[in-house]
Amino acid sequence: MPGFTPGRRWQPPYSPFKREPFNRRALASLEKAIKGPLFGCRMCGNCLLQETAFICPMECPKGLRNGPCGGATSEYCYVDETRPCIWYKIYERSFTMGREHRLLEVLPPLDWEKAGTETWGDVFTRIKEIGIGKVVTGLLFKPASVRNVMWESIFKPVRQPDWWQGDDQYHAPKYSETVSELERRLKAGEFVVTAEVAPPLSAKTDKMFRNIEAVKPYVAAINFTDNPSATPRTASWACSVMVIKQGAEPVMQIAARDRTRVGLQSEVLGAYDLGIRNIFCVSGDSMKMAPAPRGRMDIVDIDSVQMLWILRRMRDEGKYMDGREMKTPPRYFLGAAASPFASEPKFQALREHKKIDAGAQFFQTNLVFDVDLMEIWLNELAKRNILDKVYILIGITPLKTLKMAKYMNNEVPGVTVPDSIMKRMEEADKAGNAQEEGVAIALELIAKIKKFSGQGVSGLHIMPVGWEEVVPRIVSEGGVLPKGFVAPAPKV
Length: 492
Ligand code: SF4
Fold this sequence. Notes:
By secondary structure, the protein is an alpha/beta fold. Helix content is 39%, strand content 9%. An eight-stranded parallel β-barrel has the order 1-2-3-4-5-6-7-8, surrounded by five helices. Strand 2 (221-224), helix 8 (236-245) and strand 3 form a beta-alpha-beta unit. Bound molecules: iron/sulfur cluster (SF4). Iron/sulfur cluster binds at residues 60-62, 64, 68-69, 71-72, 77-79, 85-87.
């Protein structure tokens, strides 16, 4: 039985919401005294240690229960650099123990009513239901296959309550007609380009409208980020509605950081009513990146995998998260972020696999500056036989300045700018033509990425970081104009 997690940070356990009866408090104290030192248990009351190689994931400052965020590294947690990424430790140990397949099961969000209480009571109840004699015989005197079934029949109902029922299987979308133009183009096999337009930082929207006008003929859909760097901007749903009125298709990004389970379900239903069909689920940048004073940094109510699972079930099963049925389910094309370089490619591939099983139909990746490394990640996805279950749009940004290149390399989680590109940007900066060099680098990357069209890559996602006017040039000179492209009339 593995014990203490190396380098772990001791964190206080949760307290129960209400005063529990004496016998439950006594059991909780015993559980805490044993599981705390052994597993880093924080007494969330919704134990899933079986699935996480016996390391409590509640040590993650974001409270993620389904895998690492895009900022995870092998060295440290990006939210708190004084500790290791606990999810990296969980992945490392799971692969060492040959338990990595268990990381695919989609785990539920906390039932907060249980936080701070014991889980052992639920386990004992389950053992009594099965029959103590049967359990003892099944665990002690039967072959490994029977033992595993017995073990699962005790623990699975504890970690997968009726209202969630997560599993480790792929669930194909239960609709045949495409729900958005983006989906239609991808399904038709087009090499698709999407781009981000920054939501306004104030009540003035004219710059965003100009950017939308400039970008829209060149892309299949326009993404609106949801408070990037945990800094307030105009809401993604509002920008999405504005872009629909301008005759383009939005991808509404929605960050778990700013949502509760209730808020999420309410918001996506409203978004559907407003005509939004592409929804992109992310956990969101940590509150640590926000301007001070900061909000809670230690927990999210739901993570991006859970968001995908909730939205997919709303769409395909017509059910709210709590199991209530809805008469007319919404239809969404669901996207998620993929981060090829955050940690080891095989870890990242497992993470993307889980998102696909949960409901992701397309990925827009973090920025790619090294196509060789991207290929290694694609190969890991191929080994998992999941490339035909998702459309992958590779993230590209034209570097505008040397400062931006350094920022991307040093500050943006999961992004690495190779030395060769950094050197080119340094020389171009000295010569005063950094922008041109940045565009040239982006075009070279696009030429290389295009070679993977049909081998897992379905297009590009351009993140111009406030330089939206460059998008038409990148798309035209990169030879990735949309099918049926009509050039906009020249301005007079
Ligand atoms: S916040 Fe991200 S980097 Fe930090 S422990 Fe959680 S998953 Fe790892």
